[in-house]
Design brief:
With 287 residues, this protein is mainly alpha-helical. Helix 8 crosses helix 10, helix 8 crosses helix 12 and helix 11 packs antiparallel against helix 12. It is elongated.
Length: 287
């Protein structure tokens, strides 16, 4: 065996590798947190720690407060009285807040076309307003509030009255039918001749006017019918339902010169005079 052959057999052959070594990566260090800056850092610590500055969290809020403070410079200041303050202190505050010098200096514009604004009541209100320290705007606002309430109540009362009158009329029309107009006129004339109109205008709790209540109207209509039937004072006629009958009745009574109408000493004089007056009212109601 030759030396060349021995060498070839005994010398090992290295095999080349294709793998590449990977570099090692080191994590980057996290930067340290920086302290949060504030607009207060731009001013000295002497002012920064002042309680009047510490309460502001934004520079705009401080600027707004400063501007408002500057605007107040030179303006009148009002010391707010307490329960222990003197009347002079209260009067001084009231004056600065706009209270007039005296009650008659108030200027109220509270005219109303719906309700009557009593002048004496307004005068008393002005005196009380002055005592309470109200300025003109405050006092007029309260007065206007009550005026509006009064107007609302009056308007509602009017609606209630009209509703009640309509219901009363409907009730009487159903009961009297064709005789409705004549009976209502006779009842109205009799009531007007014998009762104070202020009594008839009284308003009942249900909103209806006393003179419009169905029972009142029926009552006077019944009395008028009794008079026409000669049940109160003796007359020669039997019925007084037409204009001609009424005129005849009046003439019969007044032409009897010896009758009670002209004789003041007669026990029926007042009744007959009243009867003639009522008949004339009924005659006018039919015209």
């Amino acid at each position: 065996m030759s030396n060349e052959q021995i060498t070839q057999e005994t010398v090992p052959v290295e095999q080349a590798t294709t793998e590449t070594a990977q570099p090692t990566t080191t994590p980057a260090a996290t930067p340290a947190a920086q302290p949060t800056s504030s607009w207060k850092d731009s001013i000295s610590e002497q002012y920064r720690k002042d309680p009047n500055i510490e309460k502001f969290t934004e520079a705009d809020a401080l600027a707004k407060s400063y501007i408002n403070a500057v605007k107040m410079i030179g303006q009148d200041k009002i010391a707010v009285p307490t329960n222990n303050s003197t009347q002079e202190a209260w009067d001084e505050a009231y004056t600065k807040l706009g209270r007039p010098e005296s009650p008659d200096k108030y200027s109220f514009d509270v005219k109303s076309e719906v309700v009557n604004m009593d002048e004496n009541a307004i005068k008393s209100f002005a005196e009380q307003s002055h005592k309470l320290g109200l300025n003109n705007k405050q006092a007029e606002g309260i007065l206007d509030f009550y005026k509006n309430n009064m107007e609302g109540s009056a308007q509602q009362a009017k609606i209630d009255t009209e509703t009640a009158q309509s219901q009363a009329e409907q009730e009487l029309r159903q009961e009297w039918g064709r005789d409705f107009d004549g009976k209502v006129k006779q009842a109205g004339a009799l009531a007007k001749a014998n009762i104070n109109p202020e009594i008839l205008d009284m308003t009942l709790s249900n909103g209806i006017r006393l003179g419009d209540h169905p029972e009142i109207i029926k009552g006077f209509a019944k009395i008028a019918n009794m008079m026409s039937e000669d049940k109160i004072v003796a007359t020669e006629s039997e019925n007084v339902n037409t204009i001609a009958d009424i005129e005849t009745e009046i003439s019969t009574i007044t032409n009897d010169t010896d009758g009670p109408y002209w004789n003041k000493q007669h026990p029926d004089h007042d009744k007959v005079v009243q009867q003639v007056y009522t008949l004339r009212e009924m005659l006018n109601a039919d015209k």
